[in-house]
Amino acid sequence: MHRTGELFGQYKTMEQQRETAALGMWIFLSTEVLFFGGLFMTYTLNRSTYPDIFSEASKTIRLSLGAVNTVVLIASSLTMAMAVWSSQTGKKKLLTLFLIATLALGCVFLGIKAIEYHEKYVEHHIPGWNYQFEPNADVATNAHTQLFFSLYFGMTGLHALHMIVGAGLLIWLIKESLRGRFTPEYNTPVENIGLYWHFVDIVWIFLFPLLYLIDRH
Amino acid sequence: MNETPSTGNQLPREHYLNATYGIRSWLLTTDHKRIALLYLVSVTFFFFIGGAFATMIRIHLLTPAGLLVTPETYNKLFTMHGVAMIFFFLIPSIPAVLGNFLLPIMIGAKDLAFPKVNLLSWYIYLVGGSFVLYSFATGGLDTGWTFYTPLSSVYSNSAVTPAVIGVFINGFSSILTGLNFIVTVHTMRAPGMTWFRLPLFVWAQYATSIIFILGTPVIAITLLLAGMERMFHLGFFNPALGGDPILFQHLFWFYSHPAVYIMILPAMGVISEIIPTFARKPIFGYSFIAGSSIAIAVIGFFVWAHHMFLTGQSTYSALAFSLLSYLVAIPSAVKVFNWTSTLYKGSISYDTPMLYALGFIGLFLIGGLTGLFLACLGLDIHIHDTYFVVAHFHYIMVGGAVMGYVGGLHFWWPKITGKLYPEFLARIAAVVLFIGFNLTFFPQFILGYLGMPRRYHDYPPEFQVLNVMSSAGASILALGYLLPMFYLVWSMRYGEVAGRNPWPATGLEWQTDSPPPTENFEVTPEVTWEPYDYENRPDLGLAIKGAHSLAHGDD
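Predict the joint structure of the above. Result:
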């Protein structure tokens, strides 16, 4: 399909193109909900089977780092929302600035996550890799806490993977925004990647209490 | 000048097949029609791989002790048959081939909403398929297509990991196809093409796409977890490590039961197109057929645990799932009744697609009714995991889905290639298929009821007669598949030129050239007529108005 300016050949109007892209992104996000849903189901079942073990294991991850990361991520959602607003109102310099801020905050999040993973590695809490919950833990405790850590790494790992993809998309957005491509008439990529970024944030808003706050009440 | 005088039709000078040339123009195409053909070739490849395994199974079961392979190899044969057929043939077949080709044309669009994503989905399918073929080639797979844990995650010595990765990857191909279809139907319809003027095939694809996008992610994450469990010795589904194998079954069937409707719903859509065309009548109960597709998709998400009546769940949840499973019968029956009512006093012609459609109704009826046996808690204990189940789902998937697919291929073959297939040969093939199918699978109902379990490599001598009947039927069935394979390919070169609307049918796809131009229509069409309205379509050139009013007056 040939392309006229920013309008691809299969569409008749910019309006149609914009609506199509937005609907596509919302449907993609609904598949993501179901994708994470399988993990949340597994978590729910295991936690209800081993409530005490899960709160014991949860105490060994650092709340302070998780809390800081929550704030960082919410801040990045704010800058992303500002970026979308800038693109809609035609503030091109501001758009680039907010996109860079979002990317920076995303990187801070991933950095802190890396520190947390490193701590778990030092403590032998990586499932399937010299796993030992405590020096004298019995077989059952080891097995059941390992379930918690499998889910911890599975859920936060999948989330981090989404963050990395998001960071890649942001780098592309920054490059395009420097070229001045986004205008009030055409800013679909900014809006759609914004939606994606907010979704990834929302997943973390669920992960944080489920993994870090089990025993804090 | 040298065209066949019998039809007087000529191929259009330029169409999607000859618009560009060369291997790159195919491998990098974003034309939905070309992508459909890429899919056609790939799913046919997997169909014959799965078919080869089925052939070996049926040869092996000719004698009570087993004729061909060791018990271990037998386990691999039925597993690889299932994986190839379900994930790489049945699920993509109608949506990715016929759906891809027809959906944009049927709604009067130039292409799908996201043409590049469409091409991406084909490449994802190829990557997933390669992993699975690698698994087949390096030791095979013996877990059953269901990948039940802890067999798949701990005990099996076969090449489970690449197979799981392959099916996981392939899931994203389905998700992208579903996403593309839903968005396309919402935003790309031509002027005048309202929701209730959509062809019923489009409604069926829409319903299927809902399952694609909501079900497939769950099987993806489930297989990812099972794969991680196998690779890193984790314990999500392993009781020895505190995990729960029943959880795997719940998550697996949450997708894999709706996946049955992924296979049958598009076939129902095909039948809903064929029946009114060859009965020369508006379809009876349009909105009920459209609505029943959506109803099947929705109810289908709430019946999964009927696969687990015997694997440990509370009596009350079994009761609920049994009741919900019965509910699926209602929208399914709505369709069958409406198709039958459409035939009533129609002006019926028995062209090949119609033979497949009529075969479909009968076989789907048997498959559907035996499904009710299995949804019944008490009876299911007797026939659970027997050949009764095997026969039941083959009636739905082969008698239903594959009949719909082959019938649809014949129906739209003139549109896809611009050529007519040889009608007489095609009718014979349809009859051969029907006979071969019934001879293969009907004896399996009896075998199952008498107690022969599925997935066993041997059986007591008293079951031999029925097993030999089944194997004999399979050889006829194989002939029934090979025939269309040959004459359809033959017709691409030597077939008679079809013209725009050879049947004639009422849909938008028949208003454009055969084969269509790359952008589908020279001018974006405007729809001013109701679907399947044979009475008010003088443009179709049918002179049967009188007969029609009479038939319609009785509805």
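Chain B has 16 helices and no strands.
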